[in-house]
Design a protein that fits this description.
184 residues; Aminopeptidase; 5 helices; 33% helix; globular
């Protein structure tokens, strides 16, 4: 599955993308750390990136998660990742969305494009009904991405996720299939 729109393309990562993912992770480690869980050192190695890609492939096959690399449309440079995770079927038909973007590409609308493409995949190809995001209130850039992508604020969950070693409150945002149809 590949989706190209505007300035970016999203597609599942392959083992050939591991080196670019590794360099992207290393280059942005200190920039992203305030917004991410503490990860083992192996997460920031080439082998760790290969393992992440293989795990994502298995999750895709098992309908547990759908992870995509984000690439610039013109150069095919890998600039980030967006993932639909924690897929729940049955009566809920829900997934959570998470993402990161290379610091040098922040503020250009690229992540909003990637989130929109991932949400379109969730509803049109994966058959989900709802996509939910959790974002720390101080992460203004991420809140802006979600709002521009059509997500609505649902409330706050206290001490929701452990980020950088601290249990952090998170704002919950969501979008449903109907909302996408109404003006995505």
């Amino acid at each position: 599955m590949t989706s190209e729109h505007g300035n970016i393309t999203i597609r599942p990562l392959t083992k050939e993308d591991a080196e670019a993912l590794w360099k992207l992770r290393l280059r942005n480690q200190s920039f992203l750390q305030p917004y991410e869980p503490i990860r083992p050192a192996s997460h920031f190695t080439l082998q760790g990136c290969l393992e992440q890609i293989e795990s994502a492939r298995r999750d895709w096959e098992e309908d547990k998660a759908y992870a995509f690399g984000i690439f610039l449309a013109g150069t095919h440079e890998q600039i980030g990742r967006v993932a639909l995770s924690n897929v729940v079927r049955g009566a809920w038909q829900n997934a959570t969305i998470g993402y990161f973007l290379d610091q040098q590409h922040n503020g250009k609308g690229l992540m909003t494009e990637a989130v929109r493409q991932a949400v379109a995949f969730a509803f049109e190809e994966a058959g989900l009904h709802r996509v939910q995001a959790a974002v720390m209130p101080r992460n203004v850039g991420s809140i802006r991405v979600l709002e521009k992508a059509g997500f609505r604020y649902e409330g706050m969950s206290l001490r929701y996720l452990q980020i950088n070693g601290i249990w952090e409150d998170h704002n919950i945002y969501a979008i449903t299939r109907e909302e996408m149809r109404d003006g995505f």
